[in-house]
Amino acid sequence: MNWLAGFFGDAAHWSGPDGIPVRLLEHLEFSAAAFLVAALIAVPLGMLIGHTGRGALLVVVAANAARALPTLGLLVLVVLLAGVGTVLPVLIPLIVLAVPPILVNTYEGVRGVDADLRDAAYGMGLRGRQVLFRTLTPVALPLILLGLRLAAIQVVSTATVAAFVGLGGLGRFIIDGLATKTYADVVGGAVLVAALALAVQFAFVLLDRAVVSPGVRQVR
Amino acid sequence: MTDEPLVRWDWIARNWANGGPTAISALLENHVVMAFLPVLFGLVVALPLGLACVRWRWLYQPTAALMNVTYSLPSLVLFSIFLSITGLTRSTVVIPLTFFALAVLIPAVVDGLASVPDSVRQSAVAMGFRPARRLLRVELPVAVPVVLAGLRVATVSSISLVSVGALIGQGGLGNLFIDGWQRQFYTPIVVGIALIVLLAVLADGLLVLAQRLLTPWSRARRTA
């Protein structure tokens, strides 16, 4: 607790290029960029695979691989291979690790829609694409959002570890603190990341409330 | 970059078992211990807690919420926080990973017990099973597939998460990543990733095998 007071009470931690506000913004920036790219890849792909049923194996393999692949190893290898110094190589592992949760849950969501509902939509004269967007997507939305939430948390977490390979953000406090044995910084940084992760979690709860149709929620 | 090959086999041969604490085989052993202890502890705690959540339904909501929060915390964050309590020891990795395992296993135990059909439970009662024996001989065996599915997720995640512990000096094979990074040397990194994925696949395979052995009836039903 003394460490926390020391970390947050120190005025030097609140300003300058390695102050908390700057680091927080950096963290949000990298995370948002990686998250958006991952979502743009995985949501359409998951919907397509779920709708057509083709390529389901890809989803299973991606899900298992993402769980088994060590974050730190992937970061270190990609950044060494792509060259140290720029931000872009660090974003690659962030994106790679964020795609599977979105892909799997979007796929499961679309796949898991009641067959009767799907048939009813076709029976009412909707075409394939209309069925996907007007019927399957709203019903699958809770699971799609779950996938997005897991991916967002994954990105925030990986971005923290990525401080080790030179990325800015809140992870810097932890990594630099460990290097210099300034444990107050380590714990302070950890508390900041924890708060960010919880805020992301909470934001998705609110989003879920806002966009999921009440009818769908009742069925759950 | 340079023309450094991805894998130098002679480095692996020299460092597989050089007797020191940084030998690949020593790190592997360390990694296995640190990855499996959390799953083991997690299972030991999750079984009674899961049972309690089924017995007293009001317990489940707060437990699930707490586990959800835990699960959303990055592993490095939990390691860092425990660093201030347990120092640079194995516990600093094993305790947080136990919480992650719990976050997967408690819902698995609860869902598993909920998956037991009422007809099965009633048949057991009608056959004269007392509650304790019914739980051990009927409900838990029927719940095995769901619990083991959770156990597979927990085990594979645990194996890969241990490596992040390398940042606080307790990461098993994860130390190879730090080593490779500091020397700009690909081989240890590739070896680390390959061994961790291999370990995960192996552990997953063993759990699938365990499920087949523990639920012989599901195979009989399929062949019948």
Automatic annotation (TrEMBL), chain A:
Annotated ranges, domain ABC transmembrane type-1: 24-204
PROSITE patterns: ABC_TM1
Recorded topology in the membrane: Multi-pass membrane protein
Gene Ontology cellular-component terms listed: plasma membrane
Sequence intervals crossing the membrane: 30-49, 131-150, 156-175, 187-207
Pfam families, A to Z: BPD_transp_1 (PF00528)
Subcellular location: Cell membrane; Membrane
Any GO BP annotation: glycine betaine transport
Alphabetical keyword list: Membrane, Transmembrane, Transmembrane helix, Transport
Family of this protein: Belongs to the binding-protein-dependent transport system permease family.
Protein name: ABC transporter permease subunit
Organism expressing this protein natively: Microbispora hainanensis
TrEMBL record, chain B:
Subcellular location: Cell membrane; Membrane
A single cellular component GO annotation: plasma membrane
Domain ABC transmembrane type-1: 28-208
Keywords, comma-separated and alphabetical: Membrane, Transmembrane, Transmembrane helix, Transport
InterPro entries with a match to the protein in the record: ABC_transp_perm/SBD (IPR051204), MetI-like (IPR000515), MetI-like_sf (IPR035906)
Chief location bin: membrane
Coiled-coil segments on the chain, per record: none
Pfam families recorded: BPD_transp_1
TM annotation in the entry: 32-54, 66-87, 93-114, 159-178, 185-210
Presence of keyword Transport: yes
Protein's name in the database: ABC transporter permease
Species of the source: Microbispora hainanensis
